[in-house]
Amino acid sequence: MGLIGELLLLPLAPARGSLWVLRQVVDEAERQYYDPSAIRRELSRLEELLEAGEIDEAEFERCEDELLDRLQHSTGREF
């Protein structure tokens, strides 16, 4: 983009900067959400909750399915 284009878009710089920051935050959140090691830790914690009697079998299965879907998305493999 030339100098004139940059000058015309200068008033939009704060909005463009805000969008860039927002995009970075969303990318990082997705990276953490789909991180296989974090999902495996959550699965282990879920099993501990079931064994301790803090959740019932139905809640365990619902949460486990959710976590396995995230894990499948992150690795691209079927479980």
Q: Quick check: average pLDDT?
A: 90
Rg value: 21 Å
Write down the oligomeric state.
single chain
Helix content: over 70%
Number of strands: 0
Percent of residues in beta strands?
Answer: under 5%
Overview of this protein structure:
This protein has 79 residues and is mostly helical. The chain has four helices and no strands. Helix 3 packs antiparallel against helix 4. The protein is rod-shaped and about 65 Å long. The mean pLDDT is 90. It holds the Pfam family GvpG. It comes from Streptomyces atriruber. This is Gas vesicle protein GvpG.
Task: Give a brief description.
The chain is an all-alpha fold and 79 residues long.
List keywords for this structure.
79 residues; 4 helices; mainly alpha
Topology:
Layout: H1 3-9, H2 13-33, H3 36-51, H4 57-75
